[in-house]
Design goal:
Elements (H helix, E strand, L loop, with lengths): L2 H8 L3 H12 L9 H13 L3 E6 L2 H4 L15 E6 L10 E7 L19 E3 L2 E3 L7 H16 L7 E7 L7 H9 L5 E4 L7 E5 L1 E10 L3 E2 L9 H20 L16 E8 L5 E2 L2 E10 L5 H16 L3 H5 L3 E9 L2 E2 L5 H14 L5 E4 L5 H7 L4 E3 L14 E3 H19 L3
Parallel strand pairs: 3-6, 3-7, 7-17, 8-16
Antiparallel strand pairs: 1-2, 2-6, 4-5, 5-18, 8-15, 9-13, 9-14, 10-12, 11-13
């Protein structure tokens, strides 16, 4: 590290980072209730010296965008973007730090050993809903901004922090920021990567399958058609499809994963009464797709698998199962490993922590795809903690990861944006 970079690293304030995180964790910013947290983020940005753009998102207009996708239909929501002053002549590069403020519900709070909506720090771990996914990472971005400011560094380019809503159910907030005109030369989406640098993300396509049956009184089960029974060969066929699609992955960024492009069926519903043969079964899930894969061909493969699995059954031949593509449709994305945003981040992490970060792809969908595919912005995933802790009871992130990310982002900003 250069002397100026060391000064910025030393300026990262752990106590202030955790104080900001405590403020945000206390706001249950689940889907369609993100506004109070966004207002808090705007206040923290302004206190950090950022020029802040806060606007009401026009969802009627946004829904008409071909890349819009959502599981939750919002009527209102705020966009919040803060930017350093940068060079008025536009000679430096702009680096985007993107993170989502929305979190999944806490679920049954009795499963938590600590309060989900209060930050608890124990044994070097920060607990609470959103600590890892991903309010902790947003606080790292703010800590990096403050460290650059407090060290007296003026960037030639601009450092931009995007706090977005709706990522968990489709990415409306990042799409809105792009449509608002908030662009950059490179971007870091602060998803949990266990400090790996990830220039690729898998896609995840939401689907629904409806399997018809025929109702009958449970005492005369044989006179009905049980859709649960009819779904069993479809389930087996989809598991086989998943195996085939993951059997020979050659992409070096995903090769170490046993199941990088998983097909999960997480929601099943059937029946209206316990002693009645059901009239239908519906299953909803997510379908993993690889970077560079043709999405229509991938969808066609799943649809063909369902048709083939049903072809030997007389009932399903006459009453076919239907596949619909619903909810969030996360396309995959990739950035060249030698792009400056990738190499600058990787080198900054190495020089800041003394550890060379792994270079890998992430199996989950993320807003990276919008920045790359719609914004044309080279983007990488990089953030604190393990995504396996996300969406779970007792969600946590190591405090050491938060500090490592904040310091790495500060050095990355200096090197990528330049110094005035």
């Amino acid at each position: 590290l250069a002397a100026l970079e060391r000064r910025v690293v030393e300026a990262v304030d752990e106590a202030a980072l955790l104080d900001t995180l405590a403020d945000l964790i206390a706001i249950p910013s689940v889907a369609d209730r993100e506004t109070p947290a966004q207002e808090s983020m705007a206040a923290h940005m302004e206190a950090s010296g950022l020029r802040t753009d806060v606007w009401e998102i026009d969802f009627d207009r946004l829904r008409r965008h071909p890349a819009y996708t959502a599981d939750v239909e919002r009527e209102r929501g705020l966009g919040v973007v803060g930017t350093t002053a940068g060079d008025s002549q536009g000679l430096g590069r702009t680096l985007i730090l993107n993170g989502h403020i929305d979190v999944v519900p806490a679920g049954e709070t009795e499963r938590w050993s600590r309060p989900p909506w209060r930050l608890t720090v124990e044994d070097g771990l920060a607990f609470g809903r959103g600590t890892v996914d991903m309010k902790g990472a947003l606080c790292c971005a703010l800590a990096a901004v403050r460290a650059v400011r407090d060290a007296g560094v003026e960037l030639r380019g601009a450092l931009q922090v995007q706090s977005v809503i709706g990522e968990e159910d489709g990415g409306a907030g990042t799409l809105a920021a792009l449509e608002r005109g908030h662009r950059g030369d490179g971007a870091i989406v602060l998803e949990p990567t266990r400090l790996a640098v990830a220039p690729a993300q898998a896609g995840a396509l939401g689907f629904r399958i409806r399997v018809p049956g025929r109702a009958a009184h449970g005492a005369f089960r044989e006179e009905g058609v049980d859709p649960v029974e009819k779904f069993i060969p479809i389930f087996a066929a989809l598991r086989a499809l998943e195996g085939e699609r993951n059997a020979s992955v050659t992409d070096p960024l995903f090769r170490d994963d046993a199941l990088p492009f998983a097909l999960a069926m997480g929601k099943l519903r059937s029946g209206i009464w316990a002693s009645t043969v059901s009239e239908f079964l519906t299953v909803e899930g997510r379908y993993g797709v690889a970077p560079g894969e043709d999405l229509e061909a991938a969808r066609g493969a799943l649809e063909a698998t369902v048709r083939q699995a049903a072809s030997d059954d007389a009932w399903l031949r006459q009453h076919p199962a239907r596949v619909e593509w619903v909810g969030a449709q996360f396309a995959p994305a990739r950035t060249a490993v030698d792009d400056p945003v990738v190499t600058t981040l990787r080198d900054a992490h190495r020089d800041t922590t003394g550890s060379v970060p792994a270079l890998r792809g992430m199996r989950y969908g993320a807003d990276m795809r919008l920045l790359v595919n719609q914004g044309g912005i080279p983007t990488v995933l990089f953030g604190p903690g393990d995504v396996r802790q996300a969406h779970a009871a007792d969600e946590f992130v190591p405090v050491s990861d938060l500090l490592a990310v904040a310091r790495t982002l500060a050095v990355t900003a200096i090197r990528y944006c330049g110094v005035a």
